[in-house]
Design brief:
The complex is a heterodimer.
Chain A (H helix, E strand, L loop, with lengths): L3 E5 L5 H6 L5 E5 L10 H8 L3 E5 L13 H13 L5 E4 L2 E4 L2 E7 L5 H17 L4 E4 L14 H12 L2 E5 H11 L3 H7 L5 E7 L2 E3 L2 E3 L8 H13 L4 E5 L7 H16 L6
Parallel strand pairs in A: 1-2, 1-12, 2-3, 4-7, 7-8, 8-9, 9-12
Antiparallel strand pairs in A: 5-6, 10-11
Helix pairs in contact in A: 4-5, 6-8, 7-8, 8-9
Chain B lengths: L2 H17 L10 H22 L2 H6 L5 H7 L9 H15 L5 H10 L5 H15 L1
The chains are: A alpha/beta, B mainly alpha.
Chain lengths: ~270, ~130
């Protein structure tokens, strides 16, 4: 089966996306969608048969609190309104002790935390009308007492809950630069048959650390991790994320073309 | 203590270090914690500027340094998004008598009923200058 190629839908580039050739699916930030006032552009894309996947950023499924029923209900509503095949969220926490992080932070990779996240994922799955896929986050720091790799943690989650995966290859590159992760080893450890889609995004290196900005062009090392993944298992979908500092349409088209070029390269199988 | 309670304590300590100027929890690399804290504050700075574009001009050379310094030890309000964040920052400046008039005017003009207090403050300041 051909791998579908998509792009993150953002209001700033809605017309650009409508005109880009070969966009098979898009992703929307779930918290930014109001089902009573769906953007016209999303209606146009849906009418063309383009799939829309809601991507949540505020559930905090790797947090200590059980996921908020109101947030889950809203996510379910968005998935229903957009006739989405699935929804995605992150293996991350976003609030704790009454404080909001305003961004995704990693959970400790411990057996203790795993039990909590398993219960959180099950609660989310029960509230959602479609499958849930979890994404590996990009991180700047790691917990001191981790008991397993993130790949092992995700594998355990897949086995215990049946949750699907969203693998972000830019985040694997981030982990390579910031924490010395071997992306090939991580990919080999992951249950890639559970992957619903893959994220590709640009970032920038500052003072020896990779910042996953979604505001810079996609670099060769990120596409190299995508190629590693495709060599092991052809994912059903790959999506380009760009959140800010939007380039002209031609540059986005070129980044999508670079992704397609990786996908059409013959897989090297051992 | 349950697994959930232990995770709550761990994440609460880390987040307090990242957004509220709390101590770095044992075992973490303090430099990485500082980098993560700055990254979170930078994201707030960018969102704040999108919500209230007048911030940069109103503060001039004080932007974005003063916002970053403040944001590193003052968590973003749980409700109200970036507008509420800018309100909180402006209130902090107001308490220190350091609120640029151009920024105060953003709020007094857009939301006169809510920011009447600042209108009074502006008027007093203008009166003070006149003496």
């Amino acid at each position: 089966m051909r791998t579908a190629v998509g792009i993150g839908w953002r209001p700033e580039i809605d017309l650009t996306i409508e005109r880009l050739a070969g966009v098979d699916f898009v992703e929307v930030i779930a918290e930014n969608v109001c089902v009573e006032h769906l953007p016209e552009s999303l209606r146009v894309l849906r009418a063309r048969g383009v799939e829309v996947i809601p991507h949540g950023v505020a559930l905090g499924l790797a947090g200590a609190d059980r996921p908020d029923p109101a947030r889950l209900a809203r996510l379910a509503e968005v998935a229903g309104a957009l006739e989405s095949p699935l929804v995605s969220e992150h293996l991350a926490f976003v609030r704790a002790g009454g404080l909001e992080a305003g961004h995704l932070l990693p959970a400790p990779m411990t057996w203790d935390a795993l039990d909590v996240v398993v219960e959180n994922v099950r609660i989310a799955q029960e509230s959602l009308p479609v499958p849930l896929a979890l994404e590996n986050p990009a991180t700047l720091l790691t917990w001191p007492d981790n008991e397993m790799s993130e790949a092992r943690f995700l594998t355990e989650l897949v086995e215990r809950t049946g949750v699907r995966l969203l693998i972000d290859v830019a985040n694997l590159h981030t982990e390579r630069v910031n924490h010395g992760l071997d992306p090939a080893a991580a990919l080999a450890e992951l249950p890639l048959e559970a992957v619903e889609y893959v994220h590709v995004a640009g970032g920038v290196e500052r003072d020896g650390l990779w910042h996953d900005t979604h505001a810079h062009p996609v670099t060769a090392p990120v596409l190299e991790v995508l190629e590693m993944l495709c060599a092991l298992h052809r994912p059903p979908r790959v999506l380009l994320e760009r959140d800010t500092d939007f380039p002209p349409a031609g540059e986005l088209a070129a980044e999508l073309a670079a992704i397609r070029a990786v996908l059409t390269r013959p897989a090297v199988r051992s | 203590m349950s697994a959930r309670e232990r995770l709550a304590r761990q994440q609460g300590e880390l987040l307090a270090a990242l957004v509220a100027g709390g101590p770095t929890p044992a075992g973490f690399d303090p430099e990485r914690v500082r980098t993560q804290a700055r990254a979170l504050a930078a994201k707030r700075r960018d969102s704040a500027l999108r919500a209230v574009p007048e911030l940069a001009d109103a503060l001039g050379p004080r932007w974005p340094g003063e916002f970053m310094t403040w944001a590193l030890v003052h968590p973003k309000p749980a409700e109200g998004g970036s507008r509420a964040d800018v309100h909180a920052f402006a209130s902090h400046l107001c308490e220190r008598d350091a609120l640029p008039a151009a920024l105060a005017e953003v709020f007094t003009t857009r939301e006169p009923s809510r920011w009447g207090r600042w209108r009074g403050w502006l008027a007093r300041r203008a009166w003070g200058r006149g003496q």
